[in-house]
Design goal:
Helices cover 27% and strands 18% of the residues. The chain contains 2 helices and 2 strands, in the order H-H-E-E. It has helices at residues 2-18, 34-37; strands at 58-64, 67-73. It has a two-stranded antiparallel sheet. The N and C termini lie far apart (65 Å).
């Protein structure tokens, strides 16, 4: 039983190490849902739906001392 407990602890630690934030959580547009890429008006979001994207959207990821900051730049929203 003691060996089983140690094995479970080791497996748990390995899982935690694999889930550590070793890089950005958003690496490409494929990591985003359609509602994150193209938000629509709703009760807890925008008053009106943003204009459609006529120019490609840019994903900007900044590394800070407290983690990563992801910004979606929609040039069509504020040309």
């Amino acid at each position: 039983n003691n060996n089983d407990n140690n094995n479970n602890k080791n497996n748990s630690n390995e899982k935690n190490n694999n889930n550590d934030n070793n890089g950005p959580t958003i690496r490409s547009f494929q990591d985003l849902s359609p509602s994150e890429l193209h938000p629509q008006a709703g009760p807890h979001r925008h008053i009106v739906s943003p204009p459609p994207d006529e120019i490609p959207v840019t994903l900007v990821t900044c590394s800070t001392t407290v983690g990563y900051l992801h910004v979606m730049v929609h040039p069509s929203w504020a040309p």
